[in-house]
Amino acid sequence: MPFQTVILWTDCLIYLLVAVVAATVVYVRGREHLLAPWRRVGHSASGMVGLTVLLLFVAVGLLDSLHYRPRLPASAPAATVAGPPVAKVVYAAEVRSALDALLAPLRARGEKTYSAPLATQLFAMETVERADGTQARDFPRLKYGGAQLKDPAGDWAASVARGLLGGAAAGAVAWFLLALCIAAVAAQRSGLSIRVAWDAIWRGDTATPWRAVLLVLLLLCTLAGATAALAINYHVLGTDKVGQDVLYLTLKSIRTALVIGTLTTLVMLPFALAMGIAAGYFGGWVDDVIQYLYTTLNSIPGVLLIAASVLMMQVFIDRHAELFPTAAQRADVRLLVLCLILGITSWTGLCRLLRGEALKLKELEYIQAAHAFGVRHHRVISRHILPNVMHIVLISVVMEFSGLVLAEAVLSYVGVGVDPSMNSFGTMINNARLEMAREPMVWWSLAAAFVFMVTLVLAANLFADAVRDAFDPRVRTGAALRLRAKALTRAAAA
Amino acid sequence: MIAYILRRLLYAIPILIGVNVVTFGLFFLVNTPDDMARMQLGVKRVTPEAIAGWKQERGYDKPLLYNDKAAGSARLTDTIFFEKSLRMFVFDFGRADDGRDIAREIRLRMGPSLAVALPSFIVGLLIYITCALAFAFFRASYVDFWGVVACVIAMSVSSMFYIIGGQYLIGKLWHLVPISGYTGGPDAWRFIVLPAAVGVISSFGASTRMYRTFFLEEISKDYVRTARAKGLAESAVLFRHVLKNAMIPILTGVVVAIPFLFIGGLITESFFGIPGLGSYTIDAINSQDFVVVRSMVFIGSLLYIAGLLLTDISYTLVDPRVRLS
Question: Which of A22-31, A400-409, B178-187, B196-205 has the lowest mean pLDDT?
């Protein structure tokens, strides 16, 4: 094999999460009462737009979660004392991912230091040797950025415009094909012709807001096309201090953000579920103990608890370095621990909600009836309580996500976030912040982190709001009222 | 009332002990003092003597929980748990790694923290409530819609970008106030304005949107309909009825935060170079000063409990239905 697969701990959990999501989809599909709220999510324009963008991020994150170690080119076989020389298979110490393989050109084309987006020269002046042997202070040409240009000053604009337009056009063509596919599927579903379905989509007459989704996809496709076309010859978002391509760093940061946002809730969920339901359902001393536990944990300020735990974890990792053979594994364990600790500080809110709900549910007739029939506690909990608190779990999982992504940046700044060697939005901001004082300013890493982070968090917020509106029975009345008001105004306008 | 407060204070003691046990476990059981010494002295080439000296200097050369070499009550008191953890109850935090008395540092640094956090807190609260009330007044109109859109976008931006943006625009581009630093006395406002403003802006989105939901929830209740049916003007309904009643959920989130004003914003203070408790904590984390971090954990939980108590008391002040018993 040309490579050796590496499964990091977080990869494992990500695969588990994907499996859980897939299983849920299969389970929900056949059950109309579970499908109904999801249909409401599907009808919300902002929610679907958020979901579209989120899925794109998730795709990048998943690609970045397939890790492997490439095989090194066979070195000269070591001459052994007896017998024929044996070619030993050696794998690189560096762990790469499928995303790295896709972006190999971006990763490989490192410059010397800072260069602005789409630049052909380095950002700082250097003493360069002229062809005639004299020395002068000048901006040296980049090794890769715009290297194909013979006369950068004259050809640059035309070259960039060509890349921009060509890429955007290619993106638009891809988008058009995608839109046709969607229209075809919609036509198939409703039994209409593709033409009618296409018109319905653009009139905004479909139950699922395809028009909004397609508009967002158009934006994303043209942007991605233009970026890809330009990235062949340029550093689209510039390079950082050690000359790495900022676009590559940003794309790599997505996985970290997603891992923090999802795995944290995944690892804390079992705790919060077990504790919250037990406290509400059993009451008495169980309730007292669990309440004491979460009040205590809650009263320690989150950042400080995280800081203390991560400091301690760092001591532990340093002391047991032999457990983690590669740097990637060390960084990965730190990421996982960070998720765990963030989970410990954030499970109390969900636990309290679940306790309240279980307290309410256990007084209801159907639970009383179950008790009267002699159903055992664990059956009552798993059959009657658990399904009826799942909407709370789902809402809090999606609502937590964006907060956790933002928290990662802050924690990395404080120095208790992810490993400094790991790409993340937090480390990007932190490194870029130090360059604020430069004149002129190095703004591109900061801008890249800003744009990607805002997009991710905004999409997550929009999706979370749609999910909450669809699943929260309290909000539903409000949403229904709003719908009715909308219908009334529409009727009045007609 | 006093009996209630006393009982709540008594209830705080087991929680504080719990916090103490958690931090003790975190700082002394997960890693022994030897590990900490090795880390601080540098991992390689550390002699056992150096470690012993480091431990003795800081008083870590005692048993963790039970000292069987001592006599009488000293068996329990001459231990790390008693000396380092239980002593915090009388605000004896010991000395930081740079040799300064932590309790004195905390007293000194409370002022600057408060000077930045308090204006930000009060101005912020006024602005958020005003805007939320305006959105609620113009509900289901373009003002409301675009207001909420702006809030959602604003809350999707990391607070660090607000800080960096504020420093760049106001400090570096327009040269209105210094980028960072602090001084006491009447000139302090020049250093306070920027961090306070950034603090207000950075939590604008989330807070305003939340308060708007509170107002809308209140507006859909029956007594509001009654008030309107009596012929009250919409503004009178909002200010006299809705605002007052929505204060109850707002108070829940606000009062609990008051004690934390002493700590101030961790990130804000460290970005703006304000010598408050927040930057003290960040510095301690960066220089791995475990004693200071531990003390701040204790202070933080103390303040949290005080905040909970304040919340309950404030309920009785604003909501006559709530009786403390």
Answer: B178-187
What is the Cα–Cα distance from A214 to A68, expressed in whole angstroms? 35
B21 pLDDT band, cuts 50/70/90, is confident
Q: Where are the domains of chain B?
A: 2-90, 106-318
Is the ipTM reported for this complex over the cut 0.90? no
Model confidence at B262: pLDDT above 60: yes
Please state, in angstroms and rounded to a whole number, the distance separating the CA atoms of residues A302 and B119. 24
pLDDT along chain A (494 residues), means of 10: 80 90 90 87 90 93 87 60 58 81 82 80 76 75 76 80 90 92 87 84 83 91 90 84 86 91 88 91 90 86 79 76 76 87 85 90 89 90 89 88 88 81 86 75 86 94 91 61 51 50
Q: Which CATH architecture has domain B106-318?
A: Orthogonal Bundle (1.10)
Q: How far is residue A203's CA from residue A199's CA, in Å, rounded to a whole number? A: 6
CA distance A384 to chain B (A): 30
Inspect the interface and report whether the beta carbons of B19 and A307 lie closer than 8 Å.
Answer: no
Whether A308 and B281 have beta carbons less than 8 Å apart is answered as: no
DSSP states of A159-189? HHHHHHHHHHHHHHHHHHHHHHHHHHHHHHH
Phi, psi of A5 (to 5 degrees): -75, 145
Residues B146-170 have pLDDT tens digits of: 999 999 999 999 888 898 888 888 8
Give the gyration radius of chain A's Cα atoms. 27
**CA of B71 vs chain A CAs: smallest distance (Å):** 33
Q: Which residue of B has its CA nearest to A489?
A: B140
For residue B230, give every residue at least 6 positions away whose Cβ sits within 8 Å of its Cβ, in sequence order, or none.
none
Burial of B8 from C-beta contacts in 10 A (0-12 / 13-18 / 19+): middle
Q: How far away is chain B from the Cα of A300, in angstroms, using its nearest Cα?
A: 5
Contact A413 B31 (CB under 8 A): no
Cβ pair A296:B15 closer than 8 A = yes
Nearest CA in chain B to A451: B157
**Which B positions 249-268 lie with beta carbon below 8 A of chain A?**
260, 263, 266-267
Candidate from B23, B30, B161 with C-beta closest to A450: B161
Length in residues, chain A = 494
What is the least distance, in Å, from the CA of A383 to any CA of chain B? 33
Cβ distance of A315 and B266 shorter than 8 Å: no
The verdict on B216 touching A (C-beta cutoff 8 Å) is yes
pLDDT of residue A168: 92
Nearest CA-CA partner of A261 in A346, A379, A163, A152: A346
Give me the count of residues in chain B: 325
Chain A within 8 Å of B297 (Cβ-Cβ)?
yes
Residue type, B124: G
pLDDT value, residue A494: 46
Strands (DSSP E) contained in chain B are: none
pTM, two decimals, is 0.87
Please, what is the average pLDDT of chain B? 82
Answer for the pair A463, A51: CB distance below 8 angstroms, yes or no. Answer: yes
Tokens of A155: 């050809």
